[in-house]
Protein backbone atom coordinates (compact mmCIF):
# COMPACT_ATOMS: atom_id res chain seq x y z
CA UNK A 1 0.00 0.00 0.00
CA UNK A 2 1.19 3.56 -0.66
CA UNK A 3 2.49 5.52 2.32
CA UNK A 4 2.43 9.19 3.31
CA UNK A 5 5.48 9.94 5.46
CA UNK A 6 4.86 12.86 7.80
CA UNK A 7 8.57 13.28 8.48
CA UNK A 8 8.36 16.19 10.92
CA UNK A 9 6.20 14.17 13.33
CA UNK A 10 7.82 10.85 12.36
CA UNK A 11 4.55 9.22 11.32
CA UNK A 12 3.81 6.94 8.36
CA UNK A 13 0.25 6.37 7.22
CA UNK A 14 -0.74 3.81 4.62
CA UNK A 15 -3.74 4.17 2.34
CA UNK A 16 -5.39 1.76 -0.11
CA UNK A 17 -3.76 1.25 -3.51
CA UNK A 18 -5.67 2.96 -6.30
CA UNK A 19 -7.15 5.65 -4.06
CA UNK A 20 -6.40 9.36 -4.08
CA UNK A 21 -6.44 10.84 -0.56
CA UNK A 22 -6.44 14.38 0.79
CA UNK A 23 -3.25 14.97 2.77
CA UNK A 24 -4.79 17.15 5.49
CA UNK A 25 -7.69 14.75 5.96
CA UNK A 26 -5.28 11.89 6.49
CA UNK A 27 -3.23 14.02 8.91
CA UNK A 28 -6.27 15.01 10.98
CA UNK A 29 -7.71 11.50 11.05
CA UNK A 30 -4.43 10.01 12.23
CA UNK A 31 -3.32 12.85 14.52
CA UNK A 32 -0.12 13.49 12.59
CA UNK A 33 0.51 16.96 14.00
CA UNK A 34 0.37 18.95 10.76
CA UNK A 35 -0.79 22.47 11.77
CA UNK A 36 -4.01 23.70 10.16
CA UNK A 37 -6.71 26.26 10.68
CA UNK A 38 -9.16 26.68 7.81
CA UNK A 39 -10.22 24.14 5.20
CA UNK A 40 -10.39 26.36 2.16
CA UNK A 41 -6.82 27.22 1.22
CA UNK A 42 -7.16 30.67 2.77
CA UNK A 43 -4.84 30.79 5.78
CA UNK A 44 -1.87 28.74 4.55
CA UNK A 45 -1.27 27.30 8.03
CA UNK A 46 -1.16 23.76 6.63
CA UNK A 47 1.63 24.37 4.11
CA UNK A 48 4.27 21.70 3.72
CA UNK A 49 7.31 21.02 1.59
CA UNK A 50 7.32 17.83 -0.41
CA UNK A 51 10.63 15.98 -0.05
CA UNK A 52 9.82 12.90 -2.12
CA UNK A 53 6.94 11.82 -4.33
CA UNK A 54 5.91 15.16 -5.82
CA UNK A 55 4.92 13.28 -8.97
CA UNK A 56 2.14 11.54 -7.03
CA UNK A 57 0.54 14.79 -5.85
CA UNK A 58 -2.46 16.38 -7.55
CA UNK A 59 -1.83 19.47 -9.67
CA UNK A 60 -2.13 22.75 -7.70
CA UNK A 61 -5.72 23.99 -7.61
CA UNK A 62 -6.78 27.58 -8.23
CA UNK A 63 -6.92 28.50 -4.54
CA UNK A 64 -3.51 26.98 -3.89
CA UNK A 65 -2.01 28.90 -6.80
CA UNK A 66 -3.64 32.12 -5.55
CA UNK A 67 -2.38 31.61 -2.01
CA UNK A 68 1.14 30.26 -2.55
CA UNK A 69 2.20 31.89 -5.80
CA UNK A 70 5.90 31.28 -6.46
CA UNK A 71 6.26 29.05 -3.38
CA UNK A 72 4.74 26.21 -5.40
CA UNK A 73 7.89 26.19 -7.58
CA UNK A 74 9.92 25.59 -4.40
CA UNK A 75 7.93 22.45 -3.57
CA UNK A 76 5.54 24.08 -1.10
CA UNK A 77 1.92 22.89 -1.11
CA UNK A 78 -1.22 23.30 1.00
CA UNK A 79 -2.29 20.06 2.64
CA UNK A 80 -6.01 20.91 2.51
CA UNK A 81 -5.82 21.40 -1.27
CA UNK A 82 -3.54 18.49 -2.14
CA UNK A 83 -4.33 14.86 -2.89
CA UNK A 84 -1.84 12.07 -3.32
CA UNK A 85 -2.18 8.80 -5.18
CA UNK A 86 1.17 7.31 -4.17
CA UNK A 87 4.13 7.38 -1.78
CA UNK A 88 5.27 10.80 -0.62
CA UNK A 89 7.31 12.36 2.16
CA UNK A 90 6.51 15.80 3.55
CA UNK A 91 7.99 18.18 6.12
CA UNK A 92 6.83 21.40 7.73
CA UNK A 93 7.72 23.88 10.47
CA UNK A 94 5.95 22.59 13.58
CA UNK A 95 5.41 26.14 14.83
CA UNK A 96 4.19 27.64 11.60
CA UNK A 97 1.16 29.93 11.42
CA UNK A 98 -0.79 31.33 8.50
CA UNK A 99 0.94 33.05 5.63
CA UNK A 100 1.07 36.84 5.83
CA UNK A 101 -2.18 38.68 5.40
CA UNK A 102 -1.21 40.34 2.13
CA UNK A 103 -3.42 37.92 0.27
CA UNK A 104 -6.60 38.27 -1.75
CA UNK A 105 -8.63 37.13 1.26
CA UNK A 106 -6.74 39.41 3.64
CA UNK A 107 -7.19 42.43 1.40
CA UNK A 108 -10.88 41.69 0.98
CA UNK A 109 -11.44 41.35 4.72
CA UNK A 110 -9.63 44.59 5.45
CA UNK A 111 -11.64 46.39 2.80
CA UNK A 112 -14.87 45.00 4.17
CA UNK A 113 -14.37 45.37 7.89
CA UNK A 114 -11.86 48.16 8.53
CA UNK A 115 -12.23 51.89 8.00
CA UNK A 116 -9.65 53.76 5.93
CA UNK A 117 -8.10 55.09 9.16
CA UNK A 118 -7.71 51.56 10.54
CA UNK A 119 -5.93 50.45 7.40
CA UNK A 120 -3.43 53.28 7.46
CA UNK B 1 -26.99 -0.85 21.37
CA UNK B 2 -25.80 -1.89 24.82
CA UNK B 3 -22.04 -1.41 24.73
CA UNK B 4 -19.97 1.61 23.84
CA UNK B 5 -18.22 1.14 20.49
CA UNK B 6 -14.54 2.00 20.25
CA UNK B 7 -13.54 4.75 17.78
CA UNK B 8 -12.85 2.39 14.90
CA UNK B 9 -16.08 0.44 15.36
CA UNK B 10 -18.09 3.64 15.67
CA UNK B 11 -16.56 5.22 12.54
CA UNK B 12 -17.25 2.03 10.59
CA UNK B 13 -20.87 2.05 11.79
CA UNK B 14 -21.27 5.68 10.71
CA UNK B 15 -19.78 4.92 7.29
CA UNK B 16 -22.03 1.87 6.90
CA UNK B 17 -25.05 3.98 7.78
CA UNK B 18 -24.47 5.93 4.56
CA UNK B 19 -23.64 2.90 2.45
CA UNK B 20 -26.02 2.30 -0.43
CA UNK B 21 -27.72 5.67 -0.08
CA UNK B 22 -25.02 8.17 -1.13
CA UNK B 23 -26.29 11.04 -3.23
CA UNK B 24 -23.51 10.48 -5.79
CA UNK B 25 -25.51 7.43 -6.89
CA UNK B 26 -28.83 9.26 -7.23
CA UNK B 27 -30.20 9.64 -10.75
CA UNK B 28 -29.55 13.39 -11.03
CA UNK B 29 -25.93 12.98 -9.92
CA UNK B 30 -25.29 10.12 -12.32
CA UNK B 31 -26.87 11.91 -15.28
CA UNK B 32 -24.73 14.96 -14.40
CA UNK B 33 -21.50 12.96 -14.22
CA UNK B 34 -22.31 11.18 -17.48
CA UNK B 35 -22.72 14.46 -19.39
CA UNK B 36 -26.45 13.99 -20.04
CA UNK B 37 -27.76 17.23 -18.55
CA UNK B 38 -28.35 20.65 -20.08
CA UNK B 39 -27.81 24.12 -18.61
CA UNK B 40 -31.52 24.46 -17.90
CA UNK B 41 -31.29 21.41 -15.62
CA UNK B 42 -28.33 22.92 -13.75
CA UNK B 43 -30.36 26.13 -13.37
CA UNK B 44 -33.13 24.19 -11.64
CA UNK B 45 -30.52 22.46 -9.47
CA UNK B 46 -29.13 25.86 -8.41
CA UNK B 47 -32.63 27.17 -7.66
CA UNK B 48 -33.07 24.26 -5.28
CA UNK B 49 -29.56 23.91 -3.90
CA UNK B 50 -29.56 27.52 -2.72
CA UNK B 51 -32.39 26.75 -0.29
CA UNK B 52 -30.54 23.78 1.14
CA UNK B 53 -27.03 25.26 1.52
CA UNK B 54 -27.92 28.95 1.77
CA UNK B 55 -28.85 28.63 5.46
CA UNK B 56 -25.93 26.26 6.28
CA UNK B 57 -24.30 28.81 8.58
CA UNK B 58 -27.68 29.23 10.29
CA UNK B 59 -27.89 25.49 10.93
CA UNK B 60 -24.35 25.51 12.32
CA UNK B 61 -25.15 28.51 14.51
CA UNK B 62 -27.98 26.59 16.17
CA UNK B 63 -25.61 23.69 16.84
CA UNK B 64 -23.01 26.15 18.16
CA UNK B 65 -25.52 27.56 20.62
CA UNK B 66 -26.34 24.02 21.83
CA UNK B 67 -22.67 23.10 22.30
CA UNK B 68 -21.40 23.41 25.89
CA UNK B 69 -18.46 25.67 26.69
CA UNK B 70 -16.20 22.78 27.62
CA UNK B 71 -16.37 21.38 24.06
CA UNK B 72 -14.08 24.13 22.80
CA UNK B 73 -12.79 22.15 19.83
CA UNK B 74 -16.33 21.49 18.62
CA UNK B 75 -17.34 25.13 19.03
CA UNK B 76 -14.21 26.28 17.20
CA UNK B 77 -14.89 23.91 14.32
CA UNK B 78 -18.46 25.15 13.97
CA UNK B 79 -17.40 28.79 14.07
CA UNK B 80 -14.61 28.20 11.55
CA UNK B 81 -17.05 26.41 9.26
CA UNK B 82 -19.51 29.33 9.50
CA UNK B 83 -16.73 31.82 8.81
CA UNK B 84 -15.66 29.93 5.70
CA UNK B 85 -19.25 29.71 4.45
CA UNK B 86 -19.88 33.42 4.83
CA UNK B 87 -16.92 35.77 5.11
CA UNK B 88 -13.65 33.84 4.86
CA UNK B 89 -13.34 34.77 1.20
CA UNK B 90 -16.05 34.86 -1.43
CA UNK B 91 -19.37 33.98 0.21
CA UNK B 92 -20.19 30.43 -0.82
CA UNK B 93 -23.70 31.35 -1.91
CA UNK B 94 -22.19 34.02 -4.17
CA UNK B 95 -20.22 31.26 -5.90
CA UNK B 96 -23.43 29.28 -6.25
CA UNK B 97 -25.14 32.35 -7.69
CA UNK B 98 -22.28 32.82 -10.18
CA UNK B 99 -22.83 29.27 -11.42
CA UNK B 100 -26.60 29.76 -11.49
CA UNK B 101 -26.32 32.85 -13.66
CA UNK B 102 -23.96 31.02 -16.02
CA UNK B 103 -26.76 28.48 -16.40
CA UNK B 104 -29.20 31.16 -17.46
CA UNK B 105 -31.23 31.73 -14.32
CA UNK B 106 -31.34 34.87 -12.19
CA UNK B 107 -30.62 35.82 -8.59
CA UNK B 108 -34.32 36.58 -8.13
CA UNK B 109 -35.35 33.11 -9.30
CA UNK B 110 -32.68 31.38 -7.24
CA UNK B 111 -33.76 33.17 -4.07
CA UNK B 112 -37.48 32.61 -4.68
CA UNK B 113 -38.56 29.92 -2.16
CA UNK B 114 -41.53 28.94 -4.31
CA UNK B 115 -39.09 27.49 -6.85
CA UNK B 116 -38.00 24.50 -4.80
CA UNK B 117 -39.36 20.97 -4.83
CA UNK B 118 -41.15 19.47 -1.85
CA UNK B 119 -38.08 17.29 -1.23
CA UNK B 120 -35.84 20.36 -1.05
CA UNK B 121 -38.27 22.01 1.36
CA UNK B 122 -38.18 18.84 3.44
CA UNK B 123 -34.39 18.73 3.47
CA UNK B 124 -34.14 22.36 4.55
CA UNK B 125 -36.73 21.86 7.28
CA UNK B 126 -34.97 18.72 8.50
CA UNK B 127 -31.67 20.61 8.74
CA UNK B 128 -33.28 23.38 10.80
CA UNK B 129 -35.10 20.90 13.01
CA UNK B 130 -32.08 18.71 13.73
CA UNK B 131 -29.72 21.63 14.36
CA UNK B 132 -32.15 23.30 16.78
CA UNK B 133 -33.33 20.28 18.70
CA UNK B 134 -30.66 17.59 18.83
CA UNK B 135 -27.59 17.07 21.05
CA UNK B 136 -24.65 18.81 19.35
CA UNK B 137 -22.86 15.53 18.56
CA UNK B 138 -26.02 14.10 17.02
CA UNK B 139 -26.65 17.26 14.98
CA UNK B 140 -23.02 17.20 13.81
CA UNK B 141 -23.46 13.56 12.75
CA UNK B 142 -26.53 14.55 10.76
CA UNK B 143 -25.34 17.68 9.01
CA UNK B 144 -21.60 17.21 8.77
CA UNK B 145 -21.14 13.43 8.56
CA UNK B 146 -24.46 12.51 6.91
CA UNK B 147 -24.64 15.47 4.51
CA UNK B 148 -21.45 17.55 4.22
CA UNK B 149 -18.95 14.68 4.20
CA UNK B 150 -20.61 13.28 1.06
CA UNK B 151 -19.85 16.38 -0.97
CA UNK B 152 -16.30 15.53 -2.17
CA UNK B 153 -17.40 12.17 -3.56
CA UNK B 154 -20.26 13.87 -5.43
CA UNK B 155 -18.38 16.86 -6.81
CA UNK B 156 -15.23 14.95 -7.74
CA UNK B 157 -17.40 13.20 -10.33
CA UNK B 158 -19.37 16.27 -11.33
CA UNK B 159 -16.67 18.96 -11.56
CA UNK B 160 -14.52 17.46 -14.38
CA UNK B 161 -17.38 17.30 -16.93
CA UNK B 162 -18.49 20.80 -15.93
CA UNK B 163 -15.20 22.35 -17.04
CA UNK B 164 -14.60 19.95 -19.93
CA UNK B 165 -15.15 22.02 -23.11
CA UNK B 166 -16.43 18.90 -24.86
CA UNK B 167 -19.03 18.17 -22.19
CA UNK B 168 -20.61 21.13 -20.35
CA UNK B 169 -17.97 23.78 -21.09
CA UNK B 170 -18.17 26.01 -18.02
CA UNK B 171 -15.14 28.13 -17.10
CA UNK B 172 -13.06 27.45 -13.98
CA UNK B 173 -14.50 30.65 -12.48
CA UNK B 174 -18.09 29.67 -13.17
CA UNK B 175 -17.55 26.25 -11.58
CA UNK B 176 -15.50 27.44 -8.58
CA UNK B 177 -18.33 26.52 -6.18
CA UNK B 178 -17.69 22.85 -6.89
CA UNK B 179 -13.90 22.87 -6.83
CA UNK B 180 -13.93 24.73 -3.51
CA UNK B 181 -16.21 22.19 -1.87
CA UNK B 182 -14.26 19.17 -3.09
CA UNK B 183 -11.44 20.13 -0.76
CA UNK B 184 -13.13 22.10 2.04
CA UNK B 185 -15.74 19.46 2.73
CA UNK B 186 -13.05 16.76 2.91
CA UNK B 187 -11.70 18.61 5.93
CA UNK B 188 -15.06 19.62 7.36
CA UNK B 189 -16.21 16.03 7.03
CA UNK B 190 -13.18 14.65 8.84
CA UNK B 191 -13.41 17.23 11.61
CA UNK B 192 -17.09 16.36 11.93
CA UNK B 193 -16.17 12.71 12.38
CA UNK B 194 -13.64 13.65 15.07
CA UNK B 195 -16.27 15.57 17.04
CA UNK B 196 -18.87 12.84 16.78
CA UNK B 197 -16.35 10.15 17.76
CA UNK B 198 -15.27 12.18 20.79
CA UNK B 199 -18.55 13.53 22.15
CA UNK B 200 -21.02 10.74 21.40
CA UNK B 201 -19.80 9.03 24.54
CA UNK B 202 -22.68 6.79 25.55
CA UNK B 203 -24.18 3.81 23.70
CA UNK B 204 -27.44 5.77 23.36
CA UNK B 205 -25.75 8.80 21.81
CA UNK B 206 -23.71 6.61 19.48
CA UNK B 207 -26.85 4.83 18.29
CA UNK B 208 -28.63 8.15 17.78
CA UNK B 209 -25.67 9.39 15.70
CA UNK B 210 -25.71 6.27 13.54
CA UNK B 211 -29.47 6.53 13.00
CA UNK B 212 -29.40 10.22 12.13
CA UNK B 213 -26.43 9.79 9.79
CA UNK B 214 -28.57 7.26 7.93
CA UNK B 215 -31.47 9.72 7.92
CA UNK B 216 -29.21 12.47 6.57
CA UNK B 217 -27.97 10.30 3.74
CA UNK B 218 -31.56 9.31 2.94
CA UNK B 219 -32.62 12.97 2.93
CA UNK B 220 -29.85 14.00 0.55
CA UNK B 221 -30.53 11.04 -1.73
CA UNK B 222 -34.25 11.85 -1.84
CA UNK B 223 -33.52 15.53 -2.53
CA UNK B 224 -31.17 14.63 -5.40
CA UNK B 225 -33.49 12.01 -6.90
CA UNK B 226 -36.39 14.48 -6.81
CA UNK B 227 -34.39 16.88 -8.98
CA UNK B 228 -34.20 14.25 -11.71
CA UNK B 229 -37.82 13.20 -11.38
CA UNK B 230 -39.05 16.81 -11.41
CA UNK B 231 -36.85 18.47 -14.01
CA UNK B 232 -35.03 15.88 -16.10
CA UNK B 233 -37.27 12.87 -16.56
CA UNK B 234 -39.49 14.76 -19.01
CA UNK B 235 -36.45 15.24 -21.29
CA UNK B 236 -34.45 12.05 -20.77
CA UNK B 237 -37.05 9.58 -19.55
CA UNK B 238 -37.21 7.39 -16.48
CA UNK B 239 -33.68 7.01 -15.05
CA UNK B 240 -33.74 3.22 -14.83
CA UNK B 241 -34.44 3.11 -18.58
CA UNK B 242 -31.73 5.69 -19.33
CA UNK B 243 -29.22 3.81 -17.20
CA UNK B 244 -30.09 0.49 -18.79
CA UNK B 245 -29.79 1.93 -22.30
CA UNK B 246 -26.35 3.33 -21.41
Overview in brief:
The complex is a heterodimer of chains A (120) and B (246). Chain A has 120 residues and is of the alpha+beta class.
Characterization of the model:
- The complex is a heterodimer of chains A (120) and B (246).
- With 120 residues, chain A is an alpha+beta fold.
- In chain A, 23% of the residues lie in helices and 21% in strands.
- Chain A contains 4 helices and 7 strands.
- Chain A has a 5-stranded mixed β-sheet, covered by helices on one side. In chain A, strands 3-6 form a two-stranded antiparallel sheet.
- The longest helix of chain A has 10 residues, at 104-113.
- Chain B is mainly alpha-helical and 246 residues long.
- Chain B has 13 helices and no strands.
- In chain B, α2 packs across α12.
- The longest helix of chain B has 34 residues, at 203-236.
- Classes of the chains: A alpha+beta (120), B mainly alpha (246).
- The A-B interface holds A 22, 24-25, 28-29, 36-42, 61-63, 80-81, 104-105, 108-109, 112 and B 80-81, 83-84, 87-89, 152, 172, 176, 179-180, 183-191, 193-194.
Amino acid sequence: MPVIRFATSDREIEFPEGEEVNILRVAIRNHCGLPFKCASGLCGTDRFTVVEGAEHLSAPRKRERDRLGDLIDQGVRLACQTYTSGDCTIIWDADQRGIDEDSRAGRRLRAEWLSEDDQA
Amino acid sequence: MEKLLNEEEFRTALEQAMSGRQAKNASFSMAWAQGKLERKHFARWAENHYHYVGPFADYLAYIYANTPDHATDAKDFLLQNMWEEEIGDVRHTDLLMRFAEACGTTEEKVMDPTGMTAATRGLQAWCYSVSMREHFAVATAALVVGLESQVPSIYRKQHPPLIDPDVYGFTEEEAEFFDLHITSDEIHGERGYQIVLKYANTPELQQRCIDITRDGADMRFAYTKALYDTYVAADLGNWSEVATAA
